[in-house]
Design goal:
Rossmann fold
Length: 176
């Protein structure tokens, strides 16, 4: 079994390094071009289903994947981006946000910690491993969730965890 994990294609917020979280915005012009290229890329992969975050930017990216192959699409809120609370729609470079951004257990005020994200994402991965045993699944999600998914499949130090960035529109493969 393989999981193909895709971070949604670019948005105006990802291009400007702004916390997007639960803010529901579409792909930017760059993101739409990335999505067109992603359709061609995904034609070389064998997969049996696509599971996507419900947020618009992820669904638009999932639509590009589905143009490559006609398979079922499942929307699962557990793949939604980490909620950044009062930091939503602010710069990721805010010094007062670093204690939450680079901590497993500290929740953004009004938002989530990485442990909260893992508590919803890990059970989903366990379910998909059972439901799609022997088959391949595409997951379309967000930066914090992609980092958390990587930690499910790969042992990482804290520095490796926080240093990992999943590029917009990129496909990473994890095998079981």
């Amino acid at each position: 079994m393989k999981f193909y994990v895709i971070r949604h294609c670019s948005t105006a917020y990802s291009e400007q390094k702004i916390y997007c979280g639960a803010t529901d915005i579409p792909l930017s012009e760059l993101g739409r071009r990335e999505a067109e290229a992603l359709t061609d890329i995904m034609r070389q992969y064998e997969f049996d289903a696509v599971v996507s975050s419900p947020l618009l930017r992820a669904r638009q990216t999932a639509d590009a994947v589905l143009r490559a192959k006609d398979v079922p699409l499942w929307i699962d809120p557990r793949l939604g981006e980490r909620r950044f609370g009062i930091f939503e729609e602010t710069s990721v470079d805010r010094p007062d946000g670093k204690i939450f951004r680079y901590s497993l257990a500290n929740r953004f005020p009004g938002g989530e910690s990485y442990l909260d994200v893992a508590a919803r994402v890990y059970p989903l991965l366990d379910e998909l491993k059972e439901q799609y045993a022997g088959r391949n699944v595409v997951l379309v999600s967000h930066g914090s969730v992609c980092r958390t998914i990587r930690s499910y499949f790969t042992d990482m130090t804290d520095a490796e965890f926080y240093g990992f960035t999943h590029p917009n529109g990129a496909v990473l493969e994890y095998g079981l």
